[in-house]
Write a structure and sequence with these properties.
single chain; 108 residues; 4 helices; 0% strand
């Protein structure tokens, strides 16, 4: 298979899923697993879990909205950002959201 320079292949999908969506799906799944396995309770855990579910649903529907993905990312980062053990998984989610590019400017 030929690929353009800078284009990466995402393995494990097998269904022809768009690489960006596959990357986001994997990143969300990882953070969900790590959050579920994190033993300490913290006040905003529910917010993080809810927003991860929103991201997962958008990817599953196949039509992620960039502004909504970025809002979810901010809420997740605010909820778990102080938990250093979750930082690598959170950064993976951020990188996956960034693959979708910038949100188009809002019209006024």
């Amino acid at each position: 298979m030929l690929r353009s320079v800078g284009q990466t292949r995402v393995t494990g999908s097998g269904s022809g899923e768009e690489p960006r969506a596959a990357e986001l799906r994997a990143a969300v799944a990882r953070l969900r697993r790590e959050l579920a396995g994190y033993p300490a309770e913290f006040g905003d855990r529910g917010i993080a879990e809810d927003e991860l579910a929103v991201l997962a649903a958008m990817v599953a529907a196949g039509d992620p909205e960039i502004p909504r993905m970025r809002r979810s990312l901010l809420l997740i980062a605010g909820a778990v950002g102080s938990v250093s053990a979750l930082s690598p998984a959170l950064m993976q989610v951020r990188a996956a959201v960034d693959l979708f590019g910038e949100a188009p400017p809002q019209r006024r």
